[in-house]
Amino acid sequence: MSFNNIKIILEKNNYKFSHLKKTESTMLEAQRYLKKNLQNFAIISDIQTNGKGRRGNIWHSPKGNIYCSMSFKNFLEKDKFSLFNILIAISIKMAFLKYDNKEIKFKWPNDIFFENKKFGGIIAENYELSNQNFIIVGFGINILTYPKLEKYETTCANEFSKVKNIPDFMKIFFQILFKNLKLLQKGELAKLINIYKKSLMFIGDIIEIQTINKSIIKGKFIDINHDGSLKLKYNKNFLNIYNGTIKI
Ligand code: BTN
Questions:
Q1: How far is the CA of 235 from the centre of ligand 1 (A)?
Q2: Three-state SS for 149?
């Protein structure tokens, strides 16, 4: 199957689509496209020469894995934009479930794990253009290869799942994503958040979160709020954390 079927699904939903053989980063392509066209779209590239992870990390991007960025004209209040991360994360998991019943887990806010090994990551950026607010969400899923990293263990779908063919998988992914997007547009947040929470690592545990200014906060991971933030019990108070990394 080629990427043509994906184009059809996306166009039905008023999204433009392009498939590239190679690019520096689909996040950069997406940013350029959005500035020029102010229109929702998705880009998939077979290879990235300078893949971008969160917090300035590099995202290993050889051929054989998924590298995709897509834009959403924001219909949510600005502080809720991390709900788009949740939308993508649960849609990825639901697409994997069409192949096998494997326990895919999420590490808040946007890492995707199998048996404590990371195989996918999501990054979201917010753009204000001509008085319109857009979110570009990029995600990478290791299908065929994975890098060996010092910070955490990694894996790829090939080690645990029947997912092999990228266009087939992405077709299923986009079908699921647009269904979930409709739920988000209708305000049926609880459904989406509940799916996310069921597969969340460390909920109920004492965790350490590294915040964007690099300070560490230790507390009990209580819940995910309806804006996608993490509710932490810290001393006797409750904190809502909007950005950070849970240390493992
Ligand atoms: C993370 O650090 O976990 C997020 C990784 C996001 C990687 C994807 S791959 C497609 C898109 N293009 C990029 O350069 N980065 C994102």
A1: 34
A2: coil
Contacts of 140 (CB under 8 A, 6+ apart): 51, 53, 59, 61, 65, 66, 67, 68, 120, 121
Indicate whether 1 pLDDT > 80: no
Among the listed ranges 32-41, 76-85, 213-222, which one has the minimum average pLDDT value?
A: 76-85
Per-residue pLDDT at 116 exceeds 80: yes
Is 4 buried (19+), middle (13-18) or exposed (0-12) by CB count in 10 A? exposed
Residue for token digits 């994906």?
6
Q: CA–CA separation, 121 vs 141, rounded Å?
A: 7
Confidence of residue 214 (pLDDT cuts 50, 70, 90): confident
The dihedral of CA 197, 86, 232, 79: what is its sign?
negative
> How many angstroms does the Cα of residue 137 sit away from the middle of ligand 1?
9
Q: What is the mean pLDDT of residues 188-215?
A: 93
| Whether residue 140 has its Cβ less than 6 Å from ligand 1 | yes
- DSSP state for residue 190 in the 8-state scheme: H
Q: Which residue stretches of the chain are H helix?
A: 4-12, 26-37, 83-97, 166-185, 189-198
- CA–centroid distance, residue 49 to ligand 1 (Å): 12
Mutate to test the pocket of ligand 1, among 27, 156, 245 (most ligand atoms within 8 A of CB): 27
Q: Token pair of 140, please? A: 């990478």
Predicted local confidence at residue 80, as pLDDT: 86
